[in-house]
Amino acid sequence: MSVAGAARQPFAGAPAKSYLERLDEIVRTFPDRVAFRQKTREGYRQVSYAEAYRRARAVAAGLLDMGLGAGERVAIVSENRPEWVVSYLGILIAAGTVVPLDPQISPGEWRRLLDDCEARMVFASGLHGARLQEALEGSPLAEGVIRFDPAEDGARGLTLAELESRTAPAGGFPRAGFDDVVVIIYTSGTTGRPKGVMLTQANIVSDITAVLECVRADSSDAFLCLLPLQHVFASVVSFLLPLYLGATVVFADTLKRSEILEALEEAGISILATVPQFFYLFHDRIEEELRKKPAVVRRLFRALLRANRVAQRFGVNLGKTLFGKIHRNFGSRLRLFVSGGSAFDPKVAQDFYDLGFTILQGYGLTETTGACTVTRVEDNVIGSVGRPLPGVEIRIADPDDTGVGEVLIRGPVVMKGYYRNPQATAEVLRDGWFYSGDLGRLDERGNLFITGRKKEVIVLPNGKNIYPDEVEAHYQQSPYIQEIAVIGVSDPAGHRTSERLHAVVVPNFEYLKAKKIANAREILRDEIGRYSNQLPAYKRLMSYQIQKDPLPRTTTRKIKRLELRRMIEEGELRETEGAAGDGAASPEDRALLESPVGREVLRSLREQYGRTAPIGPGMNLELDLGFDSMERVELLASLETALGVELPDDFGAEIHTVRDLITRLDELTGARRAAGERARQSWTEILSESALSKEGEWQVRFSGPWLSALKYAGLRVFYLVFRILLGLEVRGLEHLPKEPPFLICPNHQSFLDPFVVMSVLPYRTFRKVFFVGYSEYFQNWLMKFLARLANIVPVDPDAHLLAAMKLGAWGLRQGRVLCIFPEGSRTYDGELMEFKKGAAILAREVGAPIVPVGLRGLHQVWPRDARRIRLHKVRVAFGPPLAPSREGEPAYDADTERLRAAVGRLI
């Protein structure tokens, strides 16, 4: 084995004081200072250092009175709250060993871990009492449950208050030695059965004191505890370190952005340790607000970011001056963020740095007591996880030609071993070094850069190594993606020695709902394409699948990649996971399904749309039941007729699940009443002349003859420019029908497409053309003016798809020519994308032919997401009109495929 790029800090010997000796000093010095604050509905509940310490000692006395021996294991199953910390400290004072368990895992997994560590007792909150009782069925440990909250009659064990009332043993409390194991934290990595990481008192105190040598913090600080305390990063940074200082810990059990911001200000938080996803959440909000501003404001904002980046190189941070409003959102006292737990996207980190925020990044594992490296305020290298902590050495084993190899760690923070698992211990602890399984490199100054997991490297057919963490961080920038796992799966030919990049994507349904977007599949297609375009070709996703359930993760929140890969390749992981059927619903959901509105919805789903599988209230209309955007419109129109209710134009945008649909329909009907058996409302009825006439006067204005002539003259100038600069070639104009109505359907290559198409049309066609455009592009006064000038009717196709279809049909029935891009968005690579059914539906129901148009070369002139226009030859080809089919509803799909094939032949 070769070793390169070693980084080392001076070795720290054994700590001078135990953690409890330090805590005893703090309590004597600051007895009345607030140790914990917990936000409740009634306000903040406060616990002083004296009170917390008194209760912890009472817990220790109770445990000893119950016969707890030195080093025996006591588990904790609870959400974050002061009692969690009091119990933890009480176990330490009694010289026991704390085993914090993830409250989110299954009862069966709890039982397995409790049996593995041979727990004597277990603390539990009321939220998890019933599930814990299930886990302990038939176990003598059921008598050793200590409940934080009162329980129902018949529950075995003690309450925390009863435990604290027990008598302390004579002779004082035992003391654990520095090398004694005081905590066992179970971690499974990403494969295999969970392993119990044994951490000693020396591990914990060494980590705390080393961190405090690198990060300025003192007793005046207030720490916000957001992360689950059963993880080592959260427990060390969010409560053990603050108590070591005499600082205040604030519990806020929420993931809601507004409540987090509120807590930061109310509780005067100065330091927040969290995970990268927290920053992505707020970064998305800043970007979203910025997109609403005029272009000049956006350019000014970016210029100010660059200016502050330069200023900080000279030790001047103008962040609060230039971006005061953003800083005020995070509270008046906040001065430091600490990020850990997973890879942090360098682009987001750079933006926060430019805004003037201080975000320190750390790296570590459960086996290294949390942090073993951290960036420094005075040397915060973006993209790096910093230099080793004092006393810690880092080496890179077997580096490749880029310096990347396995990260080896040595120092007092490294665990004692895995509990009752000497074989696993021997695999990772060799010659005093801990073999982390992580891949990374060191720069010339000793800064560590993590690139991925050794077992998770994806080897492509061209020999390139891909680190999935990096790729995931890139795609995770999209606010529409809640989670993403990048997996290397066998290529279609079955070669297991080479892999292709595949992803499992979980949409951000809350964000989709807030943006009134119902079509998760379509928006994710566009988002993944957009972000793929920003990567080198070999790093782009080759395929992906969407699921609505969270990704499988370990107790330390790492993705179980190998399990995902196995499930994908063996066909166990389908693209969408079905929800519980009717019989598995809760009483509330059963009542909803059995209501008159619920029965009508279920009848429509089963009888009219042929969804024969059990339908549960949590099932997603798109991902579970397979409704595309057009079928969704039909469904809502049918229910509107059947229930005798008028639905708002944007009704469908806020509906994702069966539960959403029934609840909102029930609100609009005003009463749960039975609906008559009505026939399914088809597109023929929705787009009929009589139905459109009932809509009233459509607010669409077409240009008069003089303005049309003037616009045409201007576009002919564009035509000459296109001919000269782009070598524009046009063929097939003779295929255009002499008289409307008809549709013109080109493939979509760039923003220039409509200008090129319109510039080559004969005047008789040009003056009749109108567009239904994406309203997002027509927000300001200038774009609204251009829309009116170009006969573009701005519509949000996600929130108002039905309105867009009706408007298109109305225009065609008025003897107009509708230009529509069936792909719905611009191509990413110049190739044809999937065509939507809208054009085929309009053509058939209005009786209008479709003229296919093939555009070629415009993608090279102005690619998607490019800022610069390049010169390239452009061709436009018009094909023979396609008459709509008349063979029943499946004709929509058939006509769409005919259109796509015709456009494909033209290009």
Question: Would you kindly provide a written description of the structure presented here, covering whatever features stand out?
Answer:
The chain is α/β, with parallel strands linked by helices. Among the domains are: 457-569, 2-Layer Sandwich (GMP Synthetase, Chain A, domain 3), CATH 3.30.300.30; 582-681, ACP-like (Non-ribosomal Peptide Synthetase Peptidyl Carrier Protein, Chain A, Orthogonal Bundle); 705-906, 3-Layer(aba) Sandwich (Glycerol-3-phosphate (1)-acyltransferase). It is 37% helix and 19% strand. It is built from 33 helices and 35 strands. The protein has a nine-stranded mixed β-sheet with strand order 3-2-12-11-13-14-15-16-17, sandwiched between helices. The chain has a seven-stranded mixed β-sheet with strand order 29-35-34-30-33-31-32, sandwiched between helices. Strands 1, 18, 19, 21, 22 and 23 form a six-stranded antiparallel β-sheet that branches. Helix 31 packs across helix 33. It is elongated, with a radius of gyration of 32 Å. It starts with a strand and ends with a helix.
> Which descriptor suits the 3D outline?
elongated
The CATH architecture of the domain at 705-906 is 3-Layer(aba) Sandwich
Tell me the name of the CATH homologous superfamily of the domain at 705-906.
Answer: Glycerol-3-phosphate (1)-acyltransferase
pLDDT averaged residue by residue: 84
The CATH topology of the domain at 705-906 is given as: Glycerol-3-phosphate (1)-acyltransferase
Number of DSSP helical runs: 33
